[in-house]
User: What shape does this take?
Amino acid sequence: MHILKDFVPPATMRSLIADVLAAYDPPRNALDLGQSPVVAQLGAQLETIVGRPLGFFAAFLFLVADTTLETVSSNPGRGWHVDSACSQVDGDCYNLWLPLYSSAAGTGVEVVAAADNAELYQCLGDPRLPLDILVRAGAPDLFAQLGADARTDLILIRRGSPQALFLSWDDLVLRRMENPTVGDAAVFRQADIHRGFHDAGIRIQLSLKYVDRAARQLEPGVPTAAARGLSKHGRLEAQLVRELLGVQAARLI
Assistant: This one.
């Protein structure tokens, strides 16, 4: 993972927020930013960091708060995952992780990067296949059923493979970006195991995905048509996103 402090200067961030608001169409979180000059500019900067020619693939916007994470924190993986878009690309795709707004007491992202854990990813096999991640606190009964010993903190199961990997956190190199400010960014492969973390307040999170031009796209990275008819809570979330991003843009003058 690359941690990039002050990667997006204030004037560029204002333009990016404007592009995001123009493309924002709830209830979907996929944004059509393929024509954004800022997204193209960030992709060009990213090319020099990863050392590969890249093309824009997709963009996603998330509102993160304690309430939105309640389901994630209670699931078997406790929020650890690889991106589902892995199945759409045969080759590397990079995630540019950008907070656009944050009032959180503690927030950030953690990554188990392939560059730091080469042996693990060799054992995991084809990244296009779904990966099930079980963490002891999220799946104690499954740990018992699978015969995990006391040292096992997580179990990784690649669908289609008969082998499960029993691991301790001590077996892994984990990188953490904590409490980024607006303008900071993290870069990691979408096939890297990762999770966002959050404590109190709100974070509005933009994920920009850029695919290696040498990779083969199995499916186009185009947002699907939005479903219509937001619930009361959906309308409230949409209003909150728009107002907070407007507040953030005004701060960047």
